[in-house]
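User: Okay, second chain of the day. Same drill as before: sequence in, structure tokens out.
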Amino acid sequence: MIDLINTIIPRPVHIKENKKAIRIGSISSPMFRFEHTGKGVVFNEAVRYLLKTFEEKTSVVAPCGKYLITLKIDASDSNFTTCKDKKEAYYIVITDKNATLCGFDEAVAYYAAVSFTQLIFTEDSEIFLPGGYILDYPSFEKRGHYLECRYGSDFMTLEDWENALDYLSAMKINTIMVGLYGCWSRQYDGEFAEYLYIPIKKYPKLQTPRNIKYYSVDQRKWVYKKNVLPTMFEGDFFSEIIAYGKKKNIEVIAFFNSLGHNTLLPRVFPEISAVDEHGEYSKTGFCTNNGKTYEIMFDIYDEIIERYLKPNGIYSFEIGLDEIWKVVGVNKDDLQKETSPFCKCEKCRDKEQGDILVEYLIRIAKHLKQKGIKNIYIYHDMLFSYNLLNKQFADRLKREGVYDVIIIDWWSYARKEKLFEGRANEVNNLFRSIIKPFTGYYHWNMPTHANENIYSCAEIAKHLDFEGIVAYSSFEYCYDYNYKLFAECAWNTETLDDNKGFHARYSLSAFPEDCTNASEELNTALSFMEGRYTKINQPKLSLNTIQVAIYSKTQNTRRTTRQSNFAVCAMTKKNICPILGTLSTKHPRYIIILIVLIHPIFVKYGS
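Assistant: Same drill. Structure tokens below.
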């Protein structure tokens, strides 16, 4: 018998179960039929989602029978009386005779379908539903991830992105920020780590080709390639990603950084870069008193809006402005020399850095608002470090006419006691705000988790009534546990003090046949992963529990979402599958955690 309370992730807000298993047929002879009344792109996707599940559960393409399953939209339904302010509310009623799935609107009808499919279970070829009632709605309006533009995600194809949106939408995620531009110092082969994921038609010189090398398990040799451009750049399919996201009730938001994480633009256009104390172009940062700076930035913003956002009805934009620090490695002949992104020309040299940032921010925000952008996300850290996130700054934004569109993106990836560098008590709601915890990063590294950070950030967002919670990450299926824990915190804040409950739900959903043993092994893996992140004492790893081995998701060793050289996996007698990644359809009777520790092991034994 399926456990209704512990089956759905994220856990629904209200659940009533009658502990009754309702048989609706068998795999070869389903006794149910499906009807739906509604319209819209997202509703149609909900219908498709259910039909696909029915096909997977049975051997019949179009099941028909007495038991009626209905999907509908009805904002006036009396079940929504107690949650009228919850636009994303849905309910599910399962009785002996029928099952009704109802959404307040088409978007939430999709979530009703997602939850319902998690309830269907089989025993000895028989198909069942648990009797009961669910009324559900989210704690936060915005729930999502920022997916960094970084080594690994630059190889993701359109299919990879669509699969990622499918995967995340099933967790009721509705916001995805996609990093389109970001830069780091010289890191690989003595070159800048620069990433531009879309072509800028007006400035074709803006490209980020790089040389790559990887060991191909399929070819059993090292592969070297030169001048490789990001796959999204080559295919120019960012608009398709946005459109696909809308089908899944996901708003895909463009992220284009500047000032900080910004070396490509000032290198290609040195005349707009910050001037150093000797009057030379630094090829980092910007001169924010140079009209050419705004001409180029506005051209780029306008092209993104006109080519990608406006045709898809997107009115949100993330402009970053984080970590505006001194940069090393600009000069190959003097890699340790620090270069400031803040200009020291005659017009800028006497200005405080905080004032330079605010003037630039306001000018950019005014332009984006004029172009129709209603939500402009800005990272908090530099404003916070200059002690500017206060009432005076809020009043300044109001006078400038941009307060209503600015959303402060508060980010911190530390444990509770070090959250926001020990200044968590200063985080405020003077502005529209979201909060950004950490779910997982670095495709090339040992998987880690900082799930305590997710809980801590969610608590702050709940207390201050923030608009949402959008995690920082690089997309990788091995962070499945982290993603689902985050999704639950973002959807239902009543679960924030129920870590053990989530752990039980995850174990049950992933390994229903042996969830007790799975739970114990997961605890071991998670303890090790947390130790890697926090550098605390790690659990001892005995070979009968933890095995060092290699796991490859597919033979494609190039794409990060199709091949993970570094993954946490589960081994059974019959198959190998990721515990925290793409879970096997077969439920292991026992689990051995496989962890890839270092790249040389892969090189030596990968074949």
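Confidence is low (pLDDT under 50) at residues 536-607.

User: Thanks, on to the next one.
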